[in-house]
């Protein structure tokens, strides 16, 4: 589920936990990271470079 980063980080700060930021180098990696986060019910931030997304669709 998509959530604003501002709200996610505010909640993490209030409750005293960290939110992992993960570098995904392609859409397959991003999908795997999202699936794992959903399974663990854990918030994450995904860093996906626009150039990598463009390369996927070229």
Features:
58 residues, alpha+beta, two-stranded parallel sheet, 2 strands, 17% strand
Helices and strands: which structural class?
alpha+beta
> What does the radius of gyration come to?
13 Å
Roughly how many Å apart are the termini? 27 Å
Beta-strand share of residues: 15-25%
Q: Assign an overall shape.
A: elongated
Main sheet makeup: 2 strands, parallel
Q: Helix and strand string, N-terminal first?
A: HEHEH
- Amount of helix: 55-70%
The total count of strands amounts to 2
**Which consecutive residue ranges, at least 5 long each, have pLDDT under 50?**
none
The helix count comes to: 3
pLDDT averaged residue by residue: 89
Q: Strands of the largest sheet, in order across it?
A: 1-2
Structural description of this entry:
With 58 residues, this protein is of the alpha+beta class. It has helices at residues 5-15, 27-40, 50-57, and strands at 20-24, 44-48. Strands 1-2 form a two-stranded parallel sheet. Strand 1, helix 2 and strand 2 form a beta-alpha-beta unit. The chain is elongated, with a radius of gyration of 13 Å.
Write the layout of secondary structure elements.
Layout: H1 5-15, E1 20-24, H2 27-40, E2 44-48, H3 50-57
Parallel strand pairs: 1-2
Concise summary:
With 58 residues, the protein is an alpha+beta fold.
């Amino acid at each position: 589920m998509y959530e604003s980063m501002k709200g996610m980080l505010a909640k993490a700060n209030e409750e005293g936990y960290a939110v992992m930021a993960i570098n995904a180098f392609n859409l397959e990696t991003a999908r795997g990271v999202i699936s794992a986060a959903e399974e663990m019910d854990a918030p994450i931030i995904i860093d996906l470079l626009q150039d990598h997304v463009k390369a996927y669709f070229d």
